[in-house]
Design goal:
With 722 residues, this protein is an alpha/beta fold. The protein has an eight-stranded parallel β-sheet, covered by helices on one side. Helix 12 links the parallel strand 10 and strand 11. It is globular, with a radius of gyration of 26 Å. The N and C termini lie far apart (90 Å).
Length: 722
């Protein structure tokens, strides 16, 4: 009998262990990275008040030990990068792991003093992922876990909650669809900037998004992530006074030509009741959360508003729904209003210092400095890095490291609770996100040069002298935007500008002023190309080779443009013809080069959009959403007077050839006619050239076309041919 009990206990122990293993999301993720590879790891969870992970060895198995699943994933990522020479990022989330795995020769432990790692900006959900399916989201959730994200914004399907709420309040489906934006513009609807643009959405869209969000939340729960759900800040349709008899704001400024939603006044007797309906519908769909994201009066949408009353009303409504909940708010422009948060209790608010690597608000000197920081409230140091999903090498390495270091000794950082990734657009510049994600896990200050050596070894599986030289050049130039330069993201590509005689920017809020020597990107591209054959088939290397060569082409094209304009102004016809043609040749070379990587093609973007539709009509509508967002952004009024055109410009294969090239051809043809005395210089109606492309349905490849190494070499030859 005793022996039977012992055997039974052993069997139960084995079964429980196997069940625990299968339930461990890190094991499942390893098998998504490389099917069957999880058997070579031993994953251990040992609770601790300290966030930590340990790397160890037991026989032939690598041990990854941590206090929770997310930190275990961070440990896995650390092992893969720093022991196995494998770097997983957006351009490649699978790899063939060595078998046997490299041994951990000496037990290694890393600790993180902070509580949170946040992810996403509302804009990310539209500039990068508006049409993602579950397969792509599953990869993103793996990326998030590997990089320590435990507090992600979960905004997918927010429109479903509003739809249900408004129908319950008495709106018809048609009226709801006049209010809710189309798929590619939902972020700016959610941020109270516009109504209806891009819609109406079919019923199938809401069904799709509800199902997708439930899958996302289920996976977040498996990892132990705390999703940040959109809360109720009072946003209502602008006609809610007439429709429902509510007391709403009447002084909301238009946003770049778009009618803004209204705000339900906090003093309205219906505020609490409508907030209750919202949270009830949110819970029915997605459950309760501990964290809710709300940004009242985003980007200074109103004047003479009751900020204090609004803050109290928002907080009270949230707390009635969940007394233990926390309000997450973005620090951007005038948000959060200081009066609004002063009276809120400590611990009830978590502030995202959205652009900490450039314009920190938390207290150190900057263009956005708040003298007393965020006072008593908890906050996160975030890196914005990318605006509009624009393509281009960019980073602020020294500033990021210095600003992070300052939090160690500055008393205004006493309530710092972690870091965050708050990019407007994702899937770019992986080096910056890798650096940011590692900072909390490193006890010593980071030496940039040493870190770049580690990064290249992990990224490509080995460290080559010429590759390292290229990255040191980039790390001290284009990836080192200096303090005081407050441009929004990458230095914009000349190809993506609406042409004129003095191009200084592609979008209306960024600029093209160089903070680096273009000879640096050219030299880095040459170095990468010199050793490219040694890395043939290396996915990360080929991606970076194309990206760095792309940057060198864009920088060379700016010189060709400047020479062409100088020739035009000097009435030098021969020089103008030569340099304007060189510009066009570089643009076409860029288009061909970028076709060799699907990440740099408009075809992938359009394919995601069309795949989201269930009927030909839906597919066409979603494609129109996708095309408009990356080009004109809105109708003529929004594009021109509203200055939104080209905000989300993309240096992409297909888009260069079919959208940007016709603008430049029209521009150079006009200047040629002026030089030949055929016409006076006139303003070109660029919107008339642009809009037809947004209405087309021509197909673009979504897979690679051409050899990236051969095309990069061809591009370097063209650059050096001048």
């Amino acid at each position: 009998m005793i022996m039977r009990k012992i055997i039974f206990a052993i069997v139960i122990s084995i079964v429980s262990a196997l069940a625990g293993w299968s339930a461990n999301p890190a094991a499942a993720m390893i098998d998504r990275i490389d099917p069957g590879a999880s058997k070579n790891f031993k994953l251990e969870i040992k609770p601790s008040k300290t966030n930590y992970f340990e790397l160890d060895q037991q026989g032939n198995k690598v041990v990854i030990r941590a206090n929770n699943y997310i930190n275990q994933a961070v440990g896995l990522n650390w092992y893969l990068k720093h022991h196995a020479g494998i770097h997983l990022s957006w351009n490649g989330m699978t790899a063939e792991l060595p078998n046997p795995l490299p041994k951990v020769e000496q037990k290694e432990r890393h600790e993180n003093p902070y509580e949170h790692c946040y992810d996403f900006n509302y804009c990310t959900f539209s500039y990068t992922m508006p049409f993602w399916d579950w397969a792509r989201w599953e990869q993103e959730l793996d990326w998030m876990a590997l990089h320590g994200v435990n507090l992600p914004l979960a905004a997918v399907g927010e429109e479903c909650v509003y739809r249900n709420m408004l129908i319950r309040l008495g709106y018809t489906k048609d009226e709801v669809n006049e209010f809710i934006a189309g798929p590619a513009f939902l972020a700016w609807w959610a941020m109270n900037n516009l109504e209806g643009w891009g819609g109406p959405n079919p019923d199938s869209w809401y069904e799709r998004q509800e199902d997708l969000q439930k899958k996302i939340l289920a996976r977040m729960k498996e990892w132990g992530m705390e999703p940040v759900l959109p809360g109720f800040a009072g946003m209502m349709p602008h006609n809610a006074d007439e429709k429902l008899g509510l007391n709403i704001t009447k002084n909301m400024k238009p946003w770049n030509g778009f009618v803004r939603p209204a705000f339900l006044m906090s003093t309205d007797s219906s505020y609490a009741d409508i907030a209750k309906v919202y949270y009830e519908e949110l819970e029915k769909l997605y459950g309760k959360a501990k964290y809710y994201s709300m940004d009242p009066f985003h980007e200074n949408g109103g004047e003479n508003l009751d900020f204090v009353g609004a803050g109290q009303a928002v907080m009270e409504a949230m707390k009635r729904n969940n007394p233990k909940s926390v309000w997450v708010i973005q620090a951007w422009s005038g948000n959060p209003n200081e009066e609004m948060i002063d009276n809120l209790n400590q611990g009830d608010l978590l502030v995202l210092d959205l652009f900490s690597e450039c314009k920190p608000m938390w207290g150190i000197p900057s263009k956005a400095q708040r003298k007393n920081g965020f006072g008593k409230h908890e906050w996160l140091m975030c890196m914005l890095e990318n605006f509009g999903g624009n393509v281009g090498l960019h980073g602020r390495m020294d500033q990021l490291l210095a600003n992070y270091k300052a939090t160690k000794t500055n008393q205004l950082a006493a309530h710092l609770k972690g870091i965050g990734f708050t990019m407007e657009g994702s899937e770019n510049n992986p080096v910056m996100y890798e650096l940011m994600s590692e900072l909390p896990w490193r006890s010593e200050d980071v030496n940039k040069e040493e870190w770049l050596k580690e990064y290249t070894s992990a990224r490509y599986g080995r460290c080559d002298d010429k590759v390292l030289e290229a990255w040191h050049i980039l790390g001290n130039s284009i990836y080192n935007c200096p303090e005081g330069n407050i441009q929004q993201g990458t230095t914009e590509s000349i190809f993506c500008c609406r042409p004129n005689l003095d191009n200084k920017q592609a979008s209306s809020w960024s600029k093209m002023a160089m903070y680096y020597d273009p000879a640096d990107t050219r030299r880095a591209a040459e170095l990468m190309n010199e050793v490219a054959e040694n890395y043939r088939g290396n996915n990360n290397f080929e991606y970076d080779l194309v990206d760095i060569t792309r940057q060198a082409i864009a920088d060379e094209a700016r010189l060709a443009y400047q020479h062409a304009i100088a020739d035009y102004k000097a009435f030098h016809k021969e020089g103008f013809e030569k340099n304007s043609q060189r510009f066009i040749d570089l643009l076409m070379m860029q288009d061909e080069l970028l076709g060799s990587r699907p990440e740099f093609g408009v075809g992938r973007w359009i394919e995601f959009a069309r795949n989201a539709g269930t009927t030909p009509e839906e597919k066409d509508q979603y494609e129109w959403n996708a095309r408009v967002q990356i080009t004109t952004w809105g109708a003529r009024e929004n594009a021109d007077a509203g200055k939104l055109r080209d905000y989300a410009h993309k240096e992409w294969n297909g888009l260069l050839r079919d959208f940007y090239l016709p603008r430049w051809q029209a521009f150079f043809a006009t200047l040629t006619d002026v030089l030949n005395g055929k016409q006076e210089l006139e303003t070109i109606d660029y919107y008339a050239i642009e809009e037809p492309w947004t209405l087309q349905h021509n197909e673009y490849p979504s897979t690679a076309v051409g050899d990236p190494i051969e095309l990069s070499r061809k591009a370097i030859d063209l650059i050096n041919a001048n």
